[in-house]
Amino acid sequence: MPSPQAVPALPSRARCVIIGAGYTGLNSALEIARTTGGEGVVVLDSLHIGEGASGRNGGQVIPGLKLDPDTLIERFGVSGGAALIEAVGGAADYTFDLIKRLGIDCDARQCGWLQAAHTEGTLRVLSQRAEQWQRHGADVRMLDRQQTQARLGTSIYHGALLDTRAGQLQPYQYALGLGAAARAQGVTLLEQTRALSMSPDAQGWTLSTSRGDIHAEQIVIATNAYSPALLPGLPQTYVTLWSLQAATVPLPDELAARILPGDLPVSDTFRVLRYFRRSHDGRFVLGTRGAFRDELGAGDARRVRDEMLSLYPELDSVPLSHCWCGRVAVPASTIPFLSQPAKGVTVALGYYGRGVAMATRMGGFVADLVNGLPAAHSAYPVLPFKPFPAAPLHRSAARITANVMRLRDLLERRLRAGAGS
Ligand SMILES: Cc1cc2nc3c(=O)[nH]c(=O)nc-3n(C[C@H](O)[C@H](O)[C@H](O)COP(=O)(O)OP(=O)(O)OC[C@H]3O[C@@H](n4cnc5c(N)ncnc54)[C@H](O)[C@@H]3O)c2cc1C
Does 58 sit in the ligand 1 pocket, CB within 6 Å? Predict the structure, then answer.
């Protein structure tokens, strides 16, 4: 994904250097620039804007976290939990408002999102989820089997949760739009500039990069699942999973009317879930858990295609045009990880597949801290810097669990197909 922008000269000093030009880093820069100006704010990325997860995700803008509201209250108490629910529940509204305010052209549509249940048991879980969000004033409701089929064009699901706060966008265009807006506000964007190490100095920090040193009052680490060992333990604050996606060529009109007639983004409840939608240019795009590597393997495209055909056999005659994968960070903290491990250093990462809205929203919380808000007053909890104990074991366990979950899904699907025949 080459960027047409020339790389500016490396400044020797900065108020704040943000490492990582994805949604977290770019919106942190925008929020800092909005309140205190863009001068002295630098974003650097070892690659190009959006070349991490932000330019390669499924474009599903989903509010909330993987943890439901009741769990957040159990964990953070009544008032802490309520503040957190408000912060994460409002993340999609925040994202769509930002796109509108900045005039970013990325096919953003707040059209709603469906979470489709593959069993009666998962349908009950979704009903409870909907009911919990309703108690917090959100327009989240259940669709029955017929209503779900009418929107999806497939009868395999038992029903679905409809979250009207959610929607979709073109992820890479969104990242580029944030980058352009940051530049317009005076932020210095340095692509192809890798952060190598950091050490404290008299004024703050010296950051060594592949193009020289920068002295910064503050550093924000927004490298998510691509985090290097800039601080001891940083790559151990999360476990990496890979997500794999493919897109078909644009669907012929006759098929476009039958596949996802509701034109909403969808995720399902399989243990190894599938997420899918129609792109702005009429392609069917589906993602699922990938292999544990950055490069595509020989069977990857075939695997996504099999998932597509299990939903819509009529796609058989439609070829794939693209297949790609990217990294997802599952944080040790179980909620997205905001931390200040040292004076002048803020870390924000770990959105576990909910990062389009939440990484964007996190930019606001990061900017508050960089602008001097004490951690105790942050609207989002600033957590202790705690790596996973025995992180390699967690990585191995993640691999084994992913394989077991995939086998259980396959078995369940075969049994259901057998029962239906
Ligand atoms: C295939 C896929 C599908 C997904 N689908 C969805 C979805 O539909 N909805 C959803 O909500 N979320 C989804 N996600 C998750 C979402 O994309 C991420 O949570 C979000 O983009 C994270 O943004 P970020 O800015 O924190 O990190 P990233 O976008 O990953 O940015 C991190 C950046 O740090 C840079 N970097 C790393 N090391 C260095 C260094 N040493 N020096 C300089 N720069 C460095 C990287 O080059 C990268 O650009 C998906 C993720 C993947 C991979």
Answer: yes
